[in-house]
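Repro:
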Amino acid sequence: MLSLNDPILKREIIMDHYTNPRHKKLVDDPRYLKVNMNSESCIDDLDIQILVEDNIIKDFRFDGVGCTISTASTSILGDLIIDKTVDEALDIVKNYEQMLQEEPFDEEMLEEAVVFKDVSKQANRIKCATIGYNGLKSLLSQIRGDKK
């Protein structure tokens, strides 16, 4: 398990996902749901796509302009949710939000996403760290037919 106390390792993980983001390429496929997420407080402007079949997230993609935190957190999010059910993905999002709100959370469920634990100490960066998660939540709500 990743140590939350190693700032060098945390920085390396964030920079790796920023310079070599996973899942960063949109597809032109009508089976994918898509949402645009942007931030008033940063350069972040990301399109998020997911493919869900039989209640399983089969693919997650994103593209656009993002700061280090938004790009890295969205890249890690893709790793976390592919092959998960819609409910499992929503649990991951909820757990991530609890971490950022400094509430109890499950470190094992979040895997590499725990590197963003200290973002809660920089309120202006929380939007960056949650932009992909909020986009995913929006798409999963569409799938579940949740009322806004």
